[in-house]
Amino acid sequence: MNDVGRWGDGTRVVHTTPAVAGEPFTAGPVFASAYHLGGADTYGRAHNPTWRVLEEALGGLEGGTTVLFPSGMAAISTLLRVVLAPGDTVVVPGDGYYLTRALVAGMPVEVVEAPTAGPYPSFDGVRLVLLESPSNPGLDVCDIAALAEAAHAAGALVAVDNTTATPLGQLPLALGADVVVSSDTKAVAGHSDVLLGHVTAADPELAEEVRAARTTGGAIPGPFEAWLAHRGLGTLDLRLARQAENAAALYDALKAHPAVTGLRWPGAPEDPAHAVAARQMRRFGGVLTFVLADADAVAAFLARSELVYASTSFGGLHTSLDRRAQWGDPVPEGLVRLSAGCEDTGDLVADVLKAL
Ligand SMILES: *Cc1c(COP(=O)(O)O)cnc(C)c1O
């Protein structure tokens, strides 16, 4: 039921497992280190049926073969370990998730940083181009199809960190990328109660290499976490719809506010990223970025707000706000990433305006 053409998104995320008479709609978590041999599963580090149903669900949504990981960083680091050899060159976003840059900085590879909005360097001699669109926290967007074409012409592999967009917001493999990486800790699981991540590859052989690296490396997800994320996935369409509605209303309320500068949301027609985003994204999500005067202004905002939590994650039911400079992102002291939650739009806008 995952074909984009035939079914709507609500149907695609609800119907992710086949109907079997006498079985529950979605099977519960299977806790096993060892299995009776002779079936599909042998040992808990290699196989788990609860991973498998979620991998099939995510792979179906993204159009590739999915391998689940215990966090987004476990997914990214395993992909890099599989794809990169010592001395290879990797291009990473200079304005993307900071731990990705920290990770490659510690690897024996050449690192080239490029801003998500460009300009990009020549991809000659590059092994892997890792893109992040929309980027976290700046919400810039890059033209995935054009960059994938240029990278492929140079013989490079293209991976896209699709965390901010989710598989309902953007399909990087359909745009020409080879691999998707995602932190499902954010909107995919969506309830701020689980860490999880995945790699989806267009080439099943690459996916099997990543799976083998997971088995050997031993960084495996817990079945309970996979089950919780699968439960959350069923409402992704509903949650993203409310979050985007809230983000649009907040954008309108904030764009002329004297305390706010640098407001970004790719869904806004006046946003510099909107033209490219509208071409390649299926929906724009609930994450906005803006700048308040300084760290004190952010603290005062949070103290006055009743609904916005200070929290360094996003994509959950609760509206949350993160001042990114506190984590070392190269951004202004007062820059915040606000993740619109699923509260009532009127309540949220009123609370944010009151707090400002
Ligand atoms: C959070 C995040 C990650 C890391 O994911 P974890 O699940 O926290 O390990 C990677 N990329 C992006 C864009 C993120 O927002």
TrEMBL record:
Cofactor or coenzyme needed: pyridoxal 5'-phosphate
Claim: Transferase is one of the keywords in the record: no
Domain of life per record: Bacteria
Molecular function via GO: lyase activity
InterPro entries the UniProt entry points to: Cys/Met-Metab_PyrdxlP-dep_enz, PyrdxlP-dep_Trfase, PyrdxlP-dep_Trfase_major, PyrdxlP-dep_Trfase_small
EC top class, as a word: lyase
E.C. designation(s): 4.4.1.1
Keywords on record: Lyase, Pyridoxal phosphate
Similarity comment: Belongs to the trans-sulfuration enzymes family.
Protein's recorded name: Cystathionine gamma-lyase
Species of provenance: Saccharothrix yanglingensis
Upper lineage: Bacteria, Bacillati, Actinomycetota, Actinomycetes, Pseudonocardiales
